[in-house]
């Protein structure tokens, strides 16, 4: 075996070890979650032909804030994720805990009520209440 091949294998092994260390960090898991949810939002906006301006109007926030959301540049709370899902006419499936290596998640399921009012309707309702005050 040549020295070059041996060095290449050592680099590969070191890289694999480093990658495995990174996969053990909270930041790795958070970035994966944020990447997935923002991709889902992007896809839904494309399918429904909803612009950032329209989503910002539905959420009652600035277009720049929507841009930050889509770039995963903000700390998305569960409340914000629910508001976005409702503004897009979607349901948000709560993340589930699953043991590593297991095919199934936790033994219990929480059934959430179906939203009765869209986010757009909610925003309009809140605006009417403010005007009436």
Describe the structure.
This protein is mainly alpha-helical and 133 residues long. It has one domain (3-94, 104-132). It is 63% helix and 0% strand. It has six helices and no strands. It has helices at residues 3-23, 26-48, 52-59, 63-70, 78-87, 119-132. Helix 3 crosses helix 4 (63-70). The longest helix is centred in the first third of the chain and has 23 residues, at 26-48. The protein is elongated, with a radius of gyration of 21 Å. The model has no long low-confidence stretch (mean pLDDT 80).
Binned, the helix content reads 55-70%
Q: Provide the number of structural domains.
A: 1
The shape, in one word, is elongated
Distance between the termini: 82 Å
Can you give the mean pLDDT?
Answer: 80
Unreliable stretches: none
The number of helices is 6
User: Measured on Cα atoms, how large is the radius of gyration?
Assistant: 21 Å
Class derived from helix and strand content: mainly alpha
Strand % is under 5%
Largest sheet: none
Count of beta strands: 0
Q: Write down the secondary-structure element order.
A: HHHHHH
What tags apply to this protein structure?
133 residues; mainly alpha; 6 helices; elongated
What is shown here, in short?
It is built from six helices and no strands. It is an all-alpha fold.
Write the layout of secondary structure elements.
Layout: H1 3-23, H2 26-48, H3 52-59, H4 63-70, H5 78-87, H6 119-132
Helix pairs in contact: 3-4
